[in-house]
Amino acid sequence: MADRLIELREITKSYGNVYALGGVNLSVDKGEVVGLLGDNGAGKSTLIKILAGAVRPTSGDILVRGKPVTNWNAGRSRESGIETVFQDRALAVQQSIVRNIFMGNEKGNRFGFLDLKKEVSEASRLMREIGFTSRVFTPNSIVGQLSGGERQGVAIARAIYKQADLIILDEPTTALSLTETNKVFHFVRQVRASGRSILFIGHNIHHVYDIADRFVVLDRGKVALEVSKADMKSAEDLIRFMEHVAHPELTEKPKEKNKSSRSKGAA
Amino acid sequence: MSQQLPNAAKAEAPAADSWNHPQDQPLRRFLTNNRAAFGSLAVFLLMLLSFTIANPVVFTSWTLYSSVLTTLPVAIFLTVPLVFIVTVGEIDLSFPATMGFSAWMFAVVVHAGFDPILGFAAALVMGAVLGYFVGALVVYGNLSSLIATLGMNFVLRGIILIFTEGKSIALPSLNESWVFKLFSSEVGGVPVQIYWAIAFIIFSMFLYSRHRFGVHIHIVGDNPDSAAQMGINVKRVRVGAFIFVGIGAAIAGVFSTMINFTWWPTSGDGYLLPVLASVFVGGTPTWGGIGTVLGGAIGALTVSFIQTGIVGAGLSGFYVQFFNGVIIILSLLGHRWNQIRYR
Hints:
Radius of gyration of chain A: 19 Å
CATH class of chain A: Alpha Beta
Strand content of chain A: 15-25%
CATH class of chain B: Mainly Alpha
Largest sheet of chain B: 2 strands, antiparallel
Radius of gyration of chain B: 23 Å
Structural class of chain B: mainly alpha
Distance between the termini of chain A: 18 Å
Strand content of chain B: under 5%
Oligomer: heterodimer
CATH topology of chain A: Rossmann fold
Helix content of chain B: over 70%
CATH superfamily of chain A: P-loop containing nucleotide triphosphate hydrolases
Largest interface: A-B, 47 and 42 residues
């Protein structure tokens, strides 16, 4: 298997007596897109917050490139190359693309005056890297003029500028149309092609199925399914499984079928 | 890899290999970026044109403009920093008292026989300290800047009145000092104040859009959550904007005192509403995140000119307030039409 970028081992998180996560194992390899699925309250956001260092896990280990990291926090997460892109809060919409990409990390001389030329050329390099180009906007365009999918591109370009190896996209396509979703997918593929990894969180199973190489389904704080795309024939199988997780009494259990098909594939 | 959705983005993405789009040409970008400022300039020129038609003799003579150029810089030193504070999403109504307070320091130092440049320095320090104090109160006390700075305006003015018992300070010695020649004389028939004001405007324009401080002011005013997430110290940026207003008010106070050779305990009081109006007449919107320094300066020019203009055009002084209001409203309507709002 490819290089392991990050690995969570037996992560638990409890708030008082309530377990938000009860022993989750999750790993992301280099250059891999992992789709994280799960119903509301399954523990997705807790898991993201733990990865971002905003929430401390109650127990468990976090390994970066095979080495355990102690005292995991937001700073360690950033040093390890993890950047989280939240859906709405990330961008200053009245500012230009350049301003958003370099937000908080402006390039300038020691007196604080900015080197706009350098910023624009660096921004267009980053934007080209993820295929975020167009005839209608430039790095100097205002983010408010961009569509929803293009705004995700700005956030992704910023994450790449910050040397992210793992970009966590929190429901990047939830409010987007088909065309816009395709733009986001295009960026994600470019990011993967550059050897970076993406953890793609989504509610729309079709979207996640299309873009991810591997799926992890969370349910009530546990990993209910972890399967690579090769073993999941279609999005419908994934949906059927998700339905079973949500309403086990109403649906037959498709997991066994999957397991058999998986072993058949291995044999 | 299998794809269910047709990949539309891929087809359109590789189209551009250079950013040389029509809207990215330097001249066009300059016009777009300064759209609000040009709008304000148009308002001013229109106003000037109407005055000139009403009374061609007065409005083609230099004397009228010379008198405006002496007093205008004081308004500019107040208006430009206020553009920063409105952009960061706050407001500061305490600048008139800060102006009076800092000028008081200037007057006391000069009156005691020190070189006026020391007085100027003392005023600047006082302005920055008061700006920090007001800003810290608003930001760290988590108060509404509208109400808290209004209160601070009364508090500071009250302190001035209590300690001076309402007495003014005359500074006749200023006339011989080199500081006076440097900041308050004439060069080539033009009041020297306006050169300093122009230098201040240019410096502030660079600070506003080419410096980390100004850029952070924009971002914090636009989306403070995002700014904080990206490691910008939101509170420090906000306090910084208040400090800049304090410094601007101190410069305004010193210039105003040097014009009159006298410091009055009410110094600065008359500037509150005209200066606030100038910021918005200039094209800076109220909601934060964007603004224009150049527009603010032109707004100050427009507002300062109204009074002189009305009287010069041959109307009685009773018309001043009415036209003041008309021009503010017309400018706001113009900017609303001229600007796209993204949030």
